[in-house]
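Researcher: Checking consistency across runs. Here is Inosine triphosphate pyrophosphatase again:
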Amino acid sequence: MLNLVFVTGNRHKVSEVKAILGDTVDLQAVALDLPEIQGTLEEITLEKCRRAAEMTGGPVLVEDSALEMHALNGLPGPYVKAFVDTVGNKGLINLLVPHENKTAEAVCTLGYSSGPGAEPIIFQGKLVGQIVPARGVSSFGWEPIFEFDGETLAEMSREKKFGLSHRYKAVVKFRKWLEFQ
């Protein structure tokens, strides 16, 4: 069984990833202060993964989420956390007021490295939905404003969300890849 460090301080992400991976890995969560470079979601995730592998000295998994609003050419993208911290979900909604198109993609990018010096591998999951006025309570910043199939991610049962979310799709790709290693 692979011993794997999942670099996050978010216990809800740990719970979700552990539920999806099951007993395929021995997952240990570690919160590291990793600097985030400016760039694409993929570039940010690759750099975080490289640095995490160097810091831990072993196999690591990192995760980065983005919210890409179609009317805003993909903004806020990988910087969604900074947007939520600055303007909140109401501010994100207000960015779309002048636009008819409220479509957005939730994107989860996982980076895996087998250890220091090993080039990370990327696994990505996407979920297309709509930006709506906030509904529901969630531990993940923008989930109350992201609607899929009539419910926001914050309104969905844990089981339903775990079975269709952007994070679920990325982690399942990683799990399938691990099965062939």
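Researcher: Does this match what you'd expect to see?
Model: One thing to look at in this run: The chain has a mean pLDDT of 93.
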